[in-house]
Design goal:
Elements lengths: L1 H11 L18 E5 L1 H13 L3 E14 L2 E13 L7 E13 L8 E14 L8 E5 L2 E4 L4 E17 L2 E17 L14 E8 L4 E6 L1
Antiparallel strand pairs: 1-2, 1-11, 2-3, 3-4, 4-5, 5-8, 6-7, 8-9, 9-10, 9-11
């Protein structure tokens, strides 16, 4: 009788051996690491067609915080050289913000919206044919290669599919902000150059197709 009572006591205590009432551990992935291979290949093709060399590498990751939202960080880098480039150029941009999974019950899939803020730093490549800029028939000024930067906030919206650990997403996005010493008001992720344009800036997220790995 004593042995039976002890067995019942152990089985019904919080530290007992009966764990049937505990929920199973979650097997849903918590991180999605992604790139944009189509954008990378497209930029490589455009550079080759212009007799230039270089590369464009966009990378990012989404960290699931809850069943309906997470945090997304993105980093994009480019390098431009070859052809008629006298001095190579490069650009680095980074962004961070929350991602909301509107239709997901587990996170990291379904329709999503990302709110992001970020910055871009550029060291413009030097081309001999752009050694001078003219503001009128008799007013020209030298434009040496230099630094330019931009600060942007934006929103992306799209849909994320998960096929096991493989993820594929389609999205559209745009941003607005402030820039200094850039070539135009449109901020391009691949060495947009430097110039005399400062003030309002806008951008489009050209990484419309992303492929990743969730774990």
């Amino acid at each position: 009788m004593t042995s039976l009572l002890l067995a019942l006591l152990v089985a019904t205590t919080p530290d007992g051996l009966d764990r049937r009432d505990e929920p199973p551990a979650s097997t849903e992935p918590r991180v999605n690491v992604f790139g944009a291979p189509v954008s990378t290949a497209a930029v490589a093709g455009l550079l080759a067609a212009a007799d230039l060399g270089g590369l464009y590498v966009p990378l990012g990751a989404t960290f699931r915080v809850g069943p309906h939202w997470g945090l997304t960080a993105e980093l994009q880098g480019s390098y431009l050289t070859g052809g008629s480039v006298e001095a190579p150029g490069w650009s680095v941009s980074a962004s961070f913000g929350p991602t909301f999974f509107v239709t997901s019950e587990t996170g990291l899939d379904g329709f999503f919206v990302t709110l992001r803020g970020g910055a871009q730093q550029v060291q413009a490549a030097k081309f001999p044919q752009t050694a001078h800029a003219c503001f009128g028939p008799s007013s020209c000024a030298p434009v040496p290669p230099g630094n330019s930067h931009a600060f942007l906030v934006g929103v992306d919206a799209g849909y994320l599919w998960r096929f096991g650990a493989l993820t594929v997403s389609l999205q559209l996005g745009a941003g607005v902000g402030y820039e200094e010493n850039q070539a135009s008001h449109f901020t391009f992720p691949v060495d947009p150059g430097s110039g005399f344009t400062s003030g309002f800036a806008w951008s489009l997220n050209l990484n419309f197709l992303r492929v990743g790995y969730a774990f």
